[in-house]
Design a protein that fits this description.
The protein is 29% helix and 35% strand. It is α+β, with helices and mostly antiparallel strands and 306 residues long. Strands 1, 2, 3, 4, 5, 6, 7, 8, 9, 10, 11, 12, 13 and 14 form a 14-stranded mixed sheet that branches. It folds into three domains: 92 residues, no CATH class; 128 residues, Jelly Rolls, CATH 2.60.120; 72 residues, Phage tail protein beta-alpha-beta fold (3-Layer(bab) Sandwich). α2 runs antiparallel to α5.
Length: 306
């Protein structure tokens, strides 16, 4: 019997394909081949990426659709039902009410000054929504990475990222949210990190943590040079698995690098690189790890040297 998600992807347009992929990813049972197919589908067009982001955005804000919190289902059937209701109810127009959108394309950086004086630097392929209200300030990081330098204001400020809420206590901090995981690194001041089913955690300058699906990591030291490297167009890796390195590089370029040989994923990379120089990055990885490369339609594959 055919998987209904795959059948949908074969028969429908980008919106339906995005829904099918979202269902597949949320189900948590994607094989490595399916994840590569998903990444290739995303890379095909900005339309694909924007349609998928709509589902990510609505899903991350599902508990704020009304006055009564909505419990997110975990089964494939339950998730599919919610996706259908979101689409049928025309709720894709709802997210515009979250506030003004600020977006960067792939490979683009952007510096913005908000109405309260807060500055935000957005990294490649990122999107935030900003809503300044009489009694509070709210910024939602839908995807990507942003550096926040919060201006003093009597109104409290919250940054919503994935399933967490970051409350500013006079600070400069960096947030990266992609693939369901979020990393918060505080450079100055203090941030309170709150998730639905955990006690709030306080991060101070020089500390960072990750969270994913309601689970918070231990607090570890934050390396300021590594956290801020992207502001200068640099990527710094310290004994980082090649899979993570490739994922980071692909954030900056529309033509993805692929690892089809799972044996390569755990190879370790250390060094500092120019995030804008895709060919230089590939050449460096080939030299460092004794790899070869092969060009495919729309992507570059790294593979073991023969």
């Amino acid at each position: 019997m055919k998987d209904p998600a795959r059948q949908t992807m074969q028969d429908d347009g980008p919106a339906e394909e995005a829904a099918a992929w979202f269902l597949r990813i949320q189900d948590g049972e994607c094989s490595q081949q399916e994840r590569q197919e998903f990444e290739a589908w995303l890379a095909k067009s900005e339309t694909h990426r924007e349609e998928y982001r709509k589902y990510e955005e609505l899903w991350s804000n599902l508990d704020r659709l009304g006055d009564v919190p909505i419990r997110k289902p975990r089964s494939k059937t339950g998730i599919a039902a919610v996706l259908f209701l979101l689409a049928a109810g025309g709720l894709f127009n709802w997210y515009a009410g979250l506030g003004e959108a600020v977006v960067t394309g792939i490979g683009e950086h952007r510096h913005v000054v908000l109405s309260d004086g807060t500055t935000v630097d957005l990294n490649t392929d990122s999107k935030i929504r900003v809503k300044m209200e009489e009694g509070r300030r709210r910024i939602t990081l839908l995807h990507g990475e942003a550096m926040f330098n919060i201006a003093k204001d009597p109104r409290p400020l919250e940054v919503h990222a994935s399933d967490g809420i970051l409350r500013d206590i006079g600070t400069v901090f960096n947030v990266r949210s992609d693939g369901g995981a979020t990393r918060v690194a505080v450079l100055e001041g203090e941030v309170q990190v709150s998730l639905a089913r955990t006690e709030p955690v306080h991060l101070r300058g020089g500390e960072q943590l990750d969270y994913r699906q309601g689970v918070v990591s231990a607090i570890v030291p934050a390396n300021a040079a590594e956290v801020t490297a992207w502001l200068n167009g640099r990527l710094i890796f310290r004994d980082t698995p090649l899979r993570e390195v490739v994922d980071q590089i692909n954030r900056y370029h529309s033509r993805p690098i692929e690892l089809r040989d799972d044996r390569l994923a755990g190879l370790r990379v250390s060094g500092e690189f120019n995030s804008n120089d895709r060919e230089g990055l590939i050449d460096a990885l080939k030299v460092l790890l004794a790899l070869d490369s092969r060009e495919h339609l729309g992507s570059t594959e790294l593979l073991p040297h023969p």
